[in-house]
Design a protein that fits this description.
Helix 8 crosses helix 15 and helix 12 crosses helix 13. It is built from 20 helices and 14 strands. The chain has a five-stranded parallel sheet, sandwiched between helices. Strands 8-9-10-12-14 form a five-stranded mixed sheet, with helices on both faces. It has a two-stranded antiparallel sheet with strand order 6-7. The chain is α/β, with parallel strands linked by helices and 473 residues long. Helices cover 43% and strands 16% of the residues.
Length: 473
Amino acid sequence: MNIAGRIEEINIMQGLLQKEAASFLAMYGRRRIGKTFLIREVYKNQLIFECSGLHQKNMHQQLENFWLALVEKTVGEKPALPKTWLQAFSLLKQHINQLGNEQKKVVFLDEIAWFETPKSGFLAALDNFWNQYCSKRNDIILVICGSAASWIIDKVINNKGGLHNRVTHHIQLMPFTLLETKQFLAMQNVQLTLKDVTTLYMSIGGVPYYLKDVQAGQSVAQILDNLFFKPQANLKNEFGNLYASLFKNSELHVAVITALASKNKGLTRKQILAATGISSGGGFSVLLNELVACGFVKIIYPILKNKEDALYRLMDEYSIFYFKFLINNKPNNSWLQMANTQVYKIWLGYAFENCCIKHIGKIKAALGISGIISNDYSWINKGDASEKGTQIDFVIDRNDNCINILEMKYYDTLFEVTKKYAEQLNQRTSIFKQATKLKKNVFITLLTANGVKKNEYYLSAITNELVLEDLFL
């Protein structure tokens, strides 16, 4: 298969081919992440029917679309256009019955949320198709897929009606990791250093659709110019489509993203409400959950504090890049011009922090603590008139009586721990211990792009050192 990474997902999908029972697989993930490609590639020899919902079309148009997809598969007399979803799935049953039951058959419904129009009865018909037909056979894999992650979770996976507990497997397809990004680029004959792969990743993330336009033989500056700053750049106007294609009332989602983009470290729920003017309540909670479910936002809980103090942090690389460099971009600007600004330097540090947070599993593996139960937190001490406020962006709180405070630095050269920085680290650690009253060993872990100079100040403050290569393991 011509697929980079996705090893765990492929193993799950191929495992369903070996099961002696019907399977119901739900796959979801953000736009452009490669869901459809993965399903088609893994099941290309078993796919007997595929149909994708139409965006913002009515019930009649959805039924006609489904019927036309079925007609293409029909040999002999063509079935009449169905008037209801029950009739449509009945025609699909007839098609499957003609194929026998010697081998596995995959039925693939893509962008499934778009099939469900008001009072259409689509979900009830899907429920009937699975419960009264598919589940009684051992040769069918029903695959539903879509970018509207929250819809699939609420309407199908957590369905309280006939589809309750019917999904046998579900996969949330996330962006590529750094290693998978490197592998994907290599398949396109793009050979970049680990640092350049990381810089590219911090700009557009591990989204296959964005990465596919990277051309071999170009520097990162040339690549980003082609993707963002040239007159016909493919990603210049992507932001306008990104959220509208995923969410109803997407202007509210964009308002939250805009607020989060203004605060690198994240905002609490209360702060988001204040910044956006959105009314508090269940609808707002659903909105936040949707952004988290699609991977745009990460919740970072505070250590030893209430959930109300949890920070919602923007994690989507493209959205961050858009607000930092594209939204007010002047014509004819290039990435080399951008890279010489103070905005770039601030973005670089923040983007690297996000990259490290996304690869926290790799960091734990490099520290040798993968098998130890741990929780990840942020920590803020607001301070008072007598004491300056202190913030630690990422804390790994371990069950083996240890805590790692993670410091992340993205420098082009060897990072040097100065006397002032070492004093700041030691003071911050002291305040942390005193404020949290945790009786644990506290280790300061430094992760850099190009290593660190081992001077006396490094030895006095740093316990563990990690480098960029550790994120690619």
